[in-house]
Amino acid sequence: MNHPQDNLTESLRRWRVTPPADPDFRPRVWQRIRIRARASWTGYLRAHSAAWSLAAVVVLGAAAYTGHVAADTRARADREALVVTYLVDLDPRVQAVLKPAAP
Fold it and tell me: Hey, where are the domains in the chain?
């Protein structure tokens, strides 16, 4: 859809942005760098406390869930071993079918 007489395209091609130069730009940048360099670890944590709190809650929640699943799996395995051992001790004929798992 290129039209040879497209005024908008020609205007955009000639358009240039020339912002005025700021003589204080470089000193302000270095001042901000010096301020950030002097910031302490506690100041950083105070400024980002919400994000770090959320991260801590997520990590603790994931650890708690993983621990619960591992404990539940272990408890089920221990219960199964106890049931097999109990049944084998109760009826020697079951020994042929059920064998206690090695600890």
Answer: 23-96
Query: What tokens were used for 98?
Result: 């059920």
Q: Residue 94 is encoded by which pair of tokens?
A: 């079951």
Q: Please state the length of the chain.
A: 103
- Give the position of tokens 């049931």: 83
Tokens at residue 47, please?
A: 């400024």
Walk along the chain (103 residues) and give the pLDDT tens digit of each residue. 556 567 888 888 888 888 888 999 999 999 999 888 887 888 888 888 999 999 999 999 999 999 999 999 999 999 998 988 888 788 777 666 666 566 5
List of residues 6+ apart from 100 with CB closer than 8 A: 81, 84, 85, 88
